[in-house]
Task: structure prediction
Amino acid sequence: MKPITYARATDAANATAETGKDPQSRYLAGGTNILDLMKYSVENPDRLIDVSRLPMSDLSMLSNGGVLLGGMMKNSDTAAHAIIRERYPVLSEAILAGATGQIRNMASNGGNLLQRTRCHYFYDIAFKECNKRNPGSGCAALNGINRAHAVLGASEKCIATHPSDMCIALAALDAVVVTSRPNGETRRIPFTEFHLLPGNTPQIETVLERGELITGIELPPASAVPFAAKSHYLKVRDRASYAFALVSVASALQIENGVIKSARLVLGGVAHKPWRSKEAEVALVGKPANTATYKAAAEIALKGAKTYKHNAFKVPLAKQTIIRALEETASMKEVAA
Ligand code: SF4
Result:
């Protein structure tokens, strides 16, 4: 067993300074992923900096009418909050579709954004080939069991998928990630720019620099996301609970007189990051809110999909899930903001 040291951060500045200067240190918040990774020897830090008690565990209202979710706020508290359930239902649904009640009670919002892929070759260090775990070693999944792997945006270096449900909803809501940098600056990162595609460096998963700490997540005011009140998360998985998505869809529609005025469509379980299809959104806007429109958008969203030996089923599954998600979204009753 490898010895590690543990320290409790006193504030964000202390946390980022401590972690920024030590490449062998990691943050500990809810611990629902980092501790698994350490047990499997995928992550081997010398030092854990506990940030779970930093005062960032609440929801607060912003002066523009938006919402700030604390980086240390628990997933379960976020999903259950009345403002989230009423104004941003897709976010509440997505969180509740993930993991188990016990895990959601521990998992932090910031940690949710940083959870790592569940590619089984990544977790099993007996497999030497994994570019994400051991850059330059190859990818065992390319010619292995790749049923759960990506069909969009992958590279020959890595075909892993992003595991979070919450993040798919946040991408649909134009959320902004707020961070504290080791130099003391605050940074605001548009959600769809936060996670990276694998390219040649699948080990780099976000734009965060070493030591940068997620302090919060901003959700825009209802006036800026008029589609949010009619938003929905649909997840397809191998069993009814405690399973990662084969395919998921976060969809949002603003419909007036039967015509789609604005839309959001983000896919989960199919790419290395939340996969927002702006082309499909453009195809939805100005069209009648009906199944023919949704089918056309689904075709566009999956254009360019590349499948591997075991995951070709994901393409028709994703199309059907998009159509059903949009139909269910259109039939939702809006709650006034
Ligand atoms: Fe590693 Fe990515 Fe290949 Fe999985 S898909 S084995 S995480 S390189």
